[in-house]
Amino acid sequence: MTLPDDDLCLLPATRLAGMVRAREVSARELLAAHLARVDRLNPTVNALVTLDVQGATAAAAAADEALAHGAAVGPLHGLPVAHKDTHLTAGMRTTFGSPVHRDLVPTEDELVVARMGAAGAVRVGKTNVPEFAAGSHTTNTLFGPTRNPHDPSRSAGGSSGGAAAALATGMVALAEGSDMGGSLRNPAAFCGVVGLRPSPGRVPTFPTALGFSTLSVQGPLGRTVADVALGLSVLAGPDPRAPLSLPELGASFTRPVLEDLTGLRVAWAPDLGGRIPVDAAVRDALTGVPDLVLALGGELEQACPDLDEADEVFTVLRAWLFAASLGPVVDAHPALVKETIHGNVAAGRRLDGTDLARAEAAHTRLHVAVADFFTRYDVLLAPTTQVVPFDVDTEYPTVVDGTAQADYLGWMRSCTLISATGLPALSLPAGRTPEGLPVGLQVVGAHRADQQLLEVAHALEHGLGWEVSTR
């Protein structure tokens, strides 16, 4: 089977994996096609900041040799992938987007990197991030900004912006990232791909100094929901070193097959119950969501869980995490760390035990509130982002739908409020602005209901008929 490189590189990862196993295309041919797109598109988009052509070429050759000798192969065998530049990669620099770590070359792989490698993926390089993954616009002083594949004058989102842009442009077949306040969902929405924030513990995080925190998780990005399910099947599964890791094996997350929503109770919250302003361009792009749900057989109500305490939970726990993890970096290298990180660390250091106890009590009440909500509904739908991709030279939007935002987290509350709940959430491409910019629909599942979330998202994707644009 022969396809033009552009068509080949934009096929779903599930299809590419099957083609490699069936020897319809070799791993070396697949890598060459993706590297050709890197050469052509990365100078504009700036999604990949480290590239290892020699290592990837050797890995692709080894993948072909394994198939030729009838060896058992993993589910990602031969697929070109890239890793977030905050995730440790043995023998490949990991900068965290910071001059503090510009020359860091780890000796071990982070768990998500190791699992993708063990599943047969071919490591191409590292994807760009904001400094220390702080913020939802991917830019830093080492590498500059990642640009939106649909309009290079706009942001690709963040903090997994390099990963989302690389996927949307066909430079990699599959990617991974992390999400504290929207860092998988936000760039997926801005770039027109799918990003999954799994349940805390679904994808174990190791190494980490704060293994009991539920706020930041790691997860997959792909061009389709089925691709994300494939990624989750590799990344998920218990690890005894990660205290929150859930017991279900990754293989239990199967390719979603649901194609309608018959019998499912769907809650639609276009402004999260009046809690967030949403720009008109986002609202307009998602106006067809209620009709789509009904056309797919779902039961629809406009409803939202009680998220009134989610702001305090997220803000306090995030500041504490910043102080604990980045405080020593700020102390040692104050001139090399951006101002917003200084501010977050300072906010964390102003907290005391009473503040943390109050936030954790609110966290518990929030969990009970959303658990009660999901006894009445199977899934919650809301906008992924409150704005469309903004100017690449702007650090963050200060006004949303005419409402001034108090700080650089304000425009991200569509995601941060959901992060605080600990619920699994996915961003699905669901529309475009008149200028052709993607708009994401956030699909939120019940507590630990990751597989059902994938099924619902697949049905919505099927109804939307979205295709990643070729550039």
TrEMBL record:
Residues 133-162 are annotated as: Disordered. PROSITE patterns: AMIDASES. Residues 29-454 form the Amidase domain. InterPro entries: Amidase, Amidase_CS, Amidase_dom, AS_sf. Pfam families: Amidase. It comes from the Bacteria. This is Amidase.
